[in-house]
Amino acid sequence: MSATVLPAAHQAQDDEDRRFNLPSFLLWLGALALVTVAMLTVRARLDKVHIALGYLLVVLGAGASAGRRIGISLSVIAFVCFNFFFLPPYHSLVVAQPLDWIVLVAFLVTGIVAAQLLARARADAALARQRTAEVDRLSAVGAEALNAGRAEDALTAIAEVMRSTLHVARGEIFVPADTEGMMLVASAGAAQPASEGTESTGPYALRMGGTQLVEWVAASGRSALERMDGGVRVSTDDADTSGLPGLEMRGARALLLPLRVRDQTVGVLRLAGDEPISIDRAQARFLVALSYYAALGVERLRLEHEAEHAQALREADELKNALLASVSHDLRTPLTTIKALAHDLRMEGHARAATIEDEADRLNRFVADLLDLSRLNAGSFTVSPEVNAVEDLFGAALQRVSGMLREHRLRVDVDAGEPLLVGRFDFVHALRVVVNLIENAAKFSPDGATIELSAERRGDEIRIAVADRGPGVPPGEEERIFEPFYRPLGQPDAGGAGLGLSIARRMAEAQGGTVRYDARVGGGSVFELRLPAASISETSAEEAQSASL
Amino acid sequence: MPDISFGMPAAAPTPTMLVIDDEPQIRRVVRHALEADHARVIEAASGREGLDLAAAERPELIVLDLGLPDMPGADVCRDIRGWSAVPIVVLSARHSDTEKAALLDLGADDYVTKPFSTIELQARIRSHLRRAALSAAGSGDARVEADGIVIDLTKRSVTRDGVPVHLTPIEWELLRVLATNAGRTLTHAQLYTRVWDRPHGDAQQNLRVHVASVRRKLERDPVRPTLIITEPGVGYRFELGRQS
Q1: Which ipTM did the prediction report?
Q2: Domains observed in chain B
Q3: B17: left (phi over 0), alpha (psi -120 to 50) or beta
Q4: Minimum CA–CA partner of A545 in chain B
Q5: Nearest CA to CA, how far is A218 from chain B (Å)?
Q6: Which residues in chain A are closer than 8 Å to B213, comparing Cβ atoms?
Q7: Are strands A182-189 and A232-234 parallel, antiparallel or unpaired?
Q8: pLDDT tens-digit profile of A512-547?
Q9: pLDDT digit string, tens, across residues A322-370
Q10: Of the candidates A249, A268, A301, which is a domain's last residue?
């Protein structure tokens, strides 16, 4: 019989069925007496069938309106009355004709079965009403969750629906805090009265204890109970992920449930009352369904926060880029003026004016470095690899460093008799890498030293080497030199920001290459830029070689 | 067709040059550099004013800053190109290579990146004046001479120090286009259009590879080119010799 699962919303009807409602029993007893008296007055003219039908009407009426118990009780009483008043010998419970037993038993069975059937129909109807109410509740929660402008409001709405449905004082939802621990994002119901409990379990102490348990639930993904006596019970069932504890609910002051989405615990629901909580199976089912809504709400909250965070990052990034672009522009204009004025001074015979020009150039390179590093970091760095000749790259690099390599000699080892070395790379970025490597070599080489630039093809790679006779890199520092702002220990300030090598490596990597360091045999360093090689197509090579003019 | 025969001949002692820049210091610097080369310099502080002055004064050359407050440099460039072939040299600060190339494609002749050196600016401007004068005088010489190289455009021949140099048809076409635009930076797209008659390269037409082989045949040192200069990310420029 399903009457035992009838839910809170129909508690009254449920109770009416289970308990014995005395007034309505007396009412129907009266009706039975009336029918008996009425039938007694015309007893001589009545057949047994008329009497059975008359009583059956009363029994059915009682069963339909007052419930199963009263219906069955009346069946029994009517059975006795039938026997006592209407079956000869009258006014005794003796049955003279054995066949009358059949009538009596048939009447009793009919009455009881009818009462049972009526009760079942009533229970089914009640269950259907309750289901409808549940669906209404759930759809209300869903609508609230979707409607609420902010995810926090949606969670508060869900907490309120759960709290009122389960008749507890407070519903609270916790999510992981940004730093650590859990934080309360939504709460519904009365705030915890300050006077509650004894001195040691004031609201603050209670909340602290509760928070620890909340953290445990979040971490373990299991449910837990806080008991009225201050004890804690936790679910030990790993397999039970339905959200409900296989717990004894008796004496529970608060119930904590993990909120799960796709097997991930995203938050914790805490239902707490000032009185012991009692939750029956139907309510439990409802709770599980609702807690899934709450979990989705928590997930929505998390996604919203993530989106906000990403938006903030993007805006900060845009601001930074705009700032850098404007700084670089604003710096270059005065640098142009400084350079031009220094040039004029030099033309007038001021020897030291050249230094001003050089320093202006250095400042400009420094600004460019910062700009590039910021673009590399922001990922707003576009690479367009094309087939390029290494000689072209070297030519552009030599042109670019010619101004600042007055104190060094640069030897380029390219054999014009050999076939052209071609690679697939981004010319501008590769140029930047080679220039940075040459500058780096010059920075750490004594004046008058030779820097050697060479290139070869090895398999699928073009290897471009920049070799110097400087001090080399101390053992253990070979990778650190590629970190931004690295400066070698114990060496004089070479006048850079320490960005050249890190930019070089990252620019090489951005186009499928790399930059490596190796100690040079006989002292010094070799920096090698490796880039994807390309081959000139047959026809093009043929056409390029033939002298058809 | 743009009218290219206006203004004084380039041989005139004081060509007029227009500087369009909103920064007074930069205008002063450029004025200084140009006046040292005996030019008459007029200044405009905005794009609008620049366009008006260009129409009224018909300068021999325009120096245009890209970062104007009132209108994009590209619009100024396009507007002027609508009615004049006057050389336009663009000054840029933070602009990307693609933006520079787009400006050259729009008709600007050259660009100089801040902070530029006075010598560089002067050299560029001289070579543009010379090229403009050549075009104004008709097709000019059918011969281009630079650093021991003689290119005879009518006979389609090239000699280095008197020795004939053999070029493939594509190499010749590339050299011809570059040499007849000496001093101008031609973008990759412009070179593809003029040499191969199509806007983009393909595997068989690696512009940069052809440039490298032309250099091997013409330059004294292919990794230190003096004739065909690379403008990284933008294009190539034929130099008639910077010693002048």
Answers
A1: 0.84
A2: 16-136 (3.40.50.2300), 143-238 (1.10.10.10)
A3: beta
A4: B168
A5: 51
A6: 420, 544
A7: unpaired
A8: 999 999 999 988 999 999 999 988 764 454 444 443
A9: 777 677 777 888 888 888 888 888 888 888 888 888 888 888 888 888 8
A10: A301
